[in-house]
Predict the 3D structure of the following.
Amino acid sequence: MMPAAAAAMGMKLISIGILRRFGFRKILIVNTLLMGATISLYAFVSSTTPMIVIVFLGLAQGFFNSLQFSSMNSMAYADIRESDSSMASTLASSMQQMSLSFGLACGSLVTAWYLGDHPQTDQAAVTKALHLAFLTLGGMTLISSLSFWTLRATDGENVSKGIAIAT
């Protein structure tokens, strides 16, 4: 957990520059793909995996998760008139909480589905179920990147580049 937290804090220092340079659309598409790949890589972690590899995965996941949250939270306020910012804040906060809850529930259900009738005390079955769940959730994350293709290249520029929106 510590590498993920450290990477998340470090990412906050550079996220503005990344968004300013590449824009929300590119960042959200590419970052979602990187998140999916990183989640999938956890399926290959075993008792023989070197600690440095696990730490690197934690760093990568923390970095990509933090960039995703920063980008999506900023998009909640992009292209919103000042008079609508309170409603955008409420909606963004609610959606974030729902997304976190849905993600946790989905991960648990997928793992339980792969575990099937095996008891949770069967370490080999639990490990296999978790590995398959990481591959499945990584794949689902990769597919979810398609939702960001609907963004225009200029969406969110008032936030990332300080460009005023038309009122």
